Amino acid sequence: MAKRPVIDPADIAERMAECLETTSDDVMRPLHELDAHAVATASLTPAQREEYDALRALVKDVTRYRLPGTTSDHPDFHGGNGLPA
Q1: For residue range 33-52, what is the model confidence (pLDDT) as tens digits?
Q2: How far is 30 from 68, CA to CA, in rounded Å?
Q3: Which domain of life is it from (predicted)?
Q4: 37 domain-assigned
Q5: Residue 30 sits in which domain range?
Q6: pTM
């Protein structure tokens, strides 16, 4: 059986960021959010899923009232690939 090549996600993110003229953090953030949502909803009952989706919608609605500079995503704690530094 042929071995699969080792693919470094950080390298892929860097290459995508270069093509999109952005940062690797901007490339990886949606992927992390998508993965977190899939894990969070995997074992929920339909009623729990409904409450979870309602809470996510509420948070999304409220974020438009957030003032610039009042929150931090703590980029100084994380490296270029989103892992703790």
Answers
A1: 777 777 777 778 889 889 98
A2: 21
A3: Bacteria
A4: yes
A5: 9-62
A6: 0.41
